[in-house]
UniProtKB/TrEMBL annotation:
This is Aldo/keto reductase. Pfam families: Aldo_ket_red. Keywords: NADP, Oxidoreductase. It comes from the Bacteria. Belongs to the aldo/keto reductase family.
Amino acid sequence: MTLTSIADTVTLNNGVKMPWLGLGVFRVEDQIEAANSVKAAIKAGYRSIDTAAIYQNEEGVGQGIREALKETGLKREDLFITSKLWNADQGYDSALKAYQTSLDKLGLDYLDLYLIHWPVKGKYKDSWKAMEHLYNEGKIRAIGVSNFQIHHLEDLLKDAEVTPVINQVERHPRLTQQPLKIFSESHGIRLEAWAPLMVGGLFENETIVRIAEKHQKTPAQIILRWHIQDGVVSIPKSTKEHRIIENGNLFDFELSEDEMNAIQALNQDHRTGPDPDNFDF
């Protein structure tokens, strides 16, 4: 896979193009901090921003988008904005209402991608029907899911009229999610990594450090390059401008097949976040 620019995109199963790299804003609850992070990312070349209703920062993200567009001369359609349907809002009617609430908070007319945040048993199918309705009405450019295991996807696909474009899951070298990746891709569903850097937990790993030294890159850059070179969209989170810029500097080197395999071999099926089969929120 040839990747030469932070503007490079992957074509999703409905033809919509999504950047390989985006900015995540999980746990950035201060609205000003969220706005500044988003603005810094867009000015640094990022075109994809990922938020969620439960992050409670959609207003700040929207402010950052507006300020960045004003300062850069970019247009709304140059950006790819994602938000997510929270668990308490799942269900048909409540999902429709929640989508409009997210739009209002963001100050946008549409989202590029809207995801079901977690597979809430007994509710995610009704939520999906609502999202299909919004998609068919042209109010969302693409719809997908987050934290869905293989059996959740199998269940959803039994009745779905629209196949999810994305499955956003925890994914890093200690949790490669290879069976899920293979299943998702076999149905045209692209995997997207949250916590792609394992919250910094691999920055001193011997294998990662060795590869980083060889390429004169940071461990974070090596891990992010591994994700996108492996065909996985990635949304690292940072509030520091220099780190945001650094995380985006992935396109002047390439990992070898041996290096890709060495990173893949670090897998231990280790989660830092909740288990999608056992959560109570």
